[in-house]
Amino acid sequence: MSARILDGKAVAAQIEAEIADQTVEFIQNNAIQPCLAAVLVGEDPASGVYIRNKQKACERANIESRLHRLPADISEDELLQLLAKLNKADDVHGILVQLPLPDHINEARILRAVNPLKDVDAFHPENVGRIVQGQPRFLPCTPHGIQQLLIRENITIAGSHVVVVGRSDIVGKPIANMLVQRGTDATVTVCHSRTQDLPAITRLADILVVAIGRPRFVTADMVKPGATVIDVGINRTDKGLVGDVDYTAVREVAGAITPVPGGVGPLTVVMLLYNTLRAAQKTA
Questions:
Q1: Does the model's pTM come out above 0.85?
Q2: 225-256: buried (b, 16+ CB within 10 Å) or exposed (e) per residue?
Q3: In degrees, to the nearest 5, what angle opens at C-alpha 244 toward C-alphas 4 and 9?
Q4: Which of 176, 182, 186, 259 could serve as a FRET partner for 229 with CA atoms 20 to 30 Å apart?
Q5: How many Å apart are CA 124 and CA 122, to the nearest integer?
């Protein structure tokens, strides 16, 4: 029997409606509208799409969105000057620097320059450290979206063996750190390109999170029957967008699975709104 489809779009719409209501109440009580400042450097088409989606979501959730569109040849110092202004602006509560940045700009230096209190992507080292210690100020958007999807779809996390394929700073490491914390209580294994006999490890997973950036990398023989499979990958191919999981084949083995598109992606955007509202609440 085919796996249950975990509809990230529907869950995201539910969370977005909750955020919109909370934002209206916050504005009424504090006379402050939460504001997200997005910084887009260059003309990367995919980045442009992501920013437009985030702007539309902000509008639906009653959050002000400001876009700072910068040329691809802007200097690192000029970008740092803009971030310094946004850090000081009392009416800006969240700052998003759209990645990737041009090669001549030091990405780590830019992310460190964002005020941790406005770092709604949770990429600043201070916020990363707080996550590791189980004292998060903000949770990174994609991992938080995954966690919310599991909770709202009644997937048992506590006591489950979660295998994460991929060790990126954006998804792999933070989701592992989040799910292993007391109160969440998963047993977490992180795999990567140097892992030996990867299929033997992925077949142990009750929950398999795949964020490796390789189209249809995880095949049916790598999945334990009945497992929950979370596909974080978005790969552009000649046949359109596909995930890191061979969806058609794995769906016949798994107990639950996210589609691509329509799985984790919409949740990433809505958790950015969640963090922006929380950042504004901390200033009121």
A1: yes
A2: eebbbbbbbbeeeeeeebbbbbbeebbebbbb
A3: 45
A4: 182
A5: 6
Is 80's pLDDT higher than 90? yes
Q: What is 31-116's CATH number, 3.40.50.2020, 3.10.20.30, 3.40.50.10860, 3.65.10.10? A: 3.40.50.10860
Contacts of 156 (CB under 8 A, 6+ apart): 206
CA atoms within 13 A on the CB side of 236: 2
Give the list of residues 6+ apart from residue 241 with CB closer than 8 angstroms, or none: 234, 235, 260, 261
Which residues, 6 or more positions from 28, have their beta carbon under 8 angstroms from its beta carbon? none
Asked if residues 157 and 186 have their Cβ atoms less than 8 Å apart, the reply is yes
Residues marked active site are found at 54, 98, 121
Rounded distance, CA 206 to CA 254, Å? 10
Cα–Cα distance, 284 to 277 (Å, whole number) = 11
Mean pLDDT of 55-78: 97
Q: What is the pLDDT of residue 50?
A: 87
